[in-house]
Amino acid sequence: MPLKSLLVLGLLASASVLAADTAKAPAAPVPLLWKVSDKDNAVYLLGSFHLLRPGDYPLSPEVEAAFADAERLMFELAPEEMQSPAMPQMMLQAALRTDGRTLQQELDAATWRRLEGWAGKNGMPVVSFNNFEPWFVGLTISIVEMTRQGLDPKLGLDNHFMDKAKAAGKPAAGLERAQEQIGVLDGMEATEQRQFIVEALDQAEKGSAETERLHQAWRRGDAEGLWSGMAADMKRQYPRLYRRINVERNDAWVPRIQQILTQPGDDDALVVVGALHLLGDDGVVEKLRARGYQVERICSACRAGTR
């Protein structure tokens, strides 16, 4: 599975800050939405895609109803961090090389030539990348290519609900801090970082097929397809990174979500996180179900028995 999928599946909200009109989609996206209940309140879990198109709106009635029912919202990052002008600078600072070498010295000659070609086509001097770590360069390539395909971070599901929460006067908080998210990217092994650049260049040369496949799977609400076709591959090919990006963060989030369910009163919450965090045995949905909570998928368009 391309490491680029970490971004487009919504695993790292902070990545979208680095960032078209298309034809209207025929129907609202089928939501990746679950309701977790205890005796007096509920938490709605909504799987996000961080870069979307105008045609992905409006959302389904189930999602709008969950927002209306929620007294507060939670995201991977609090809105004041996610939407802060300081966020891109934080990523740039983390990405600066401190080892005394250049990116060209780290990459093999063939990859550097490919990067040089891509940069030239996009009006960027390739030497401007020399002071940055490979993960940041690979991420930049992916963002540039996805925005060219009409996917816009400003239209991502997180930003959409952050704006709605602000307009409705609903409090919103984060499950983690921005520095923690950036640290996940910055903590990638050197071999994974170099592979990230190669795969980003591969996808740039192939065009929009991979991104469109992910986007359409999200629009269909295809939880099983997203898991078996992408997350399972990532778990097999990059086990250490999968654990850092998915398992460890899910394990840290579950107690925070439980606090909402166990607190006095009947206030409900809507939690909007990257879609992959909700899928599979390592996902937040199954982790909460394993702790004894009632969990149901809310999706009128889904087949009977889909979770």
Write the layout of secondary structure elements.
Layout: H1 5-8, E1 33-37, E2 42-48, H2 61-69, E3 72-75, H3 79-82, H4 86-95, H5 103-106, H6 109-121, H7 134-148, H8 157-168, E4 172-174, H9 178-186, H10 190-206, H11 209-219, H12 223-237, H13 239-262, E5 269-274, H14 284-290, E6 294-297
Parallel strand pairs: 2-5, 3-4, 3-5
Antiparallel strand pairs: 1-2, 1-6
Helix pairs in contact: 4-9, 6-10, 7-10, 12-13
Pfam families: TraB_PrgY_gumN (PF01963)
Keywords: Signal
Protein name: TraB/GumN family protein
Structure in words:
Keywords: Signal. Residues 1-19 form the signal peptide. This is TraB/GumN family protein. The chain is α/β, with parallel strands linked by helices. It has one domain. It contains 14 helices and 6 strands. The protein has helices at 5-8, 61-69, 79-82, 86-95, 103-106, 109-121, 134-148, 157-168, 178-186, 190-206, 209-219, 223-237, 239-262, 284-290; strands at residues 33-37, 42-48, 72-75, 172-174, 269-274, 294-297. A 6-stranded mixed sheet has the order 4-3-5-2-1-6, with helices on both faces. Helix 4 packs parallel to helix 9, helix 6 packs across helix 10 and helix 7 runs parallel beside helix 10 (190-206). It starts with a helix and ends in a 10-residue tail after the last strand.
